[in-house]
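Table S2 (continued). Query chain:
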Amino acid sequence: MNTTASDQQATLLRWLGGDNNEQSLLDCRNSINDALKELWGRYEWPYYAGRQTLIVNAPYQTGTVTFDLATLSFTLTGGTWPAWAEYGHIKIGSNFAKVTRRVSGTVITIEDSTQFTADLVTAQTYGLWRSEYPLPNNIRKISYLTNDTNSQHVCEYVTPMEFSTRRPGIYGTVPLQFTVRKDPKLGNGLNICLWPFPSNSWTYRYSFIRSPREVAVWSDSTGKISTTAADATITGASTAFDATYASSILRVGRDGTNPPTGTIGLNPYSEELFIDSVTNTTSLETYNVASYSRSNVKYEISSLLDIDDVTMTSVFLMECYLALGKRRNKDGKEMQMIAGMHAQAVRDAISKSKTASQITYAGQGRQSSVSPWYNLGAY
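Corresponding output:
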């Protein structure tokens, strides 16, 4: 059975004696999100590992530019600055500067303390090289960065501090090194930074470990819905769907009175559908089509807990009890018993998650499943 945030919240509320007041709800919800973070940090769970593709950009050199020192801006004629321009460096002759902003399709600005110290009134040829690539902000560790065109060419990881000593890779060739550091444009964003800057559009692959997603939707059952068999469109009446519901679970009820529960609840759902996208407040699309046609029935939408429900369910529950017990100053003896159960659950979960299999990374030969991961840094 899929475990939702609503399921886990109900379990914790029962532990508190069914006290369903606002403070209890907040304590349970904070404990669930805390437990996700704590459990993630205890072991490199295979569930959070994956592989991803990065397609780098070739340099952009269309048209000519002029430069205004007062505004630190380059104006382009005969071309359009690419959408990635704010993650690039511009080079004219032997001078270069980091781009700070793409103002429009024809204007970019560069950082202060630049090598460009005077206006360029006469149009100049140039090169715009992309140096940084935003990562999904829940990726926390990276193992390898390998060029698909040449599987023997692997970028070497260096720390952000060491990377900062390198002269910008304006020469344009196959990148030799990379790091991952904070994106100054985004509060929690991380960027892959390459050196030297790539001279062609190549495809890279990398292995990663991500952090778990926090709960986005605890429970919504406002209004009613209607479903049509073999159709992925869900129509709501007096509902308030919003974009955060994407990737959550929709549980379809059996009548217009009782919001559905899990299979062991008092009002078991008739079916579960995974939400793909939200069209508007009264319409959404699901990945899987409905099995039944139902009209004006109750429903519940809640986030799927970001854990492996085969190996991590028990240890996650213990993690939640620990987090909630600390918040509520639970009795010491009870907490000691939970701590013991938690320790055993951690050992059991790790044992179930371990694999003796080997993992192959392009250009790296056979690597064991305990290959080192690079912790991502900041400036």
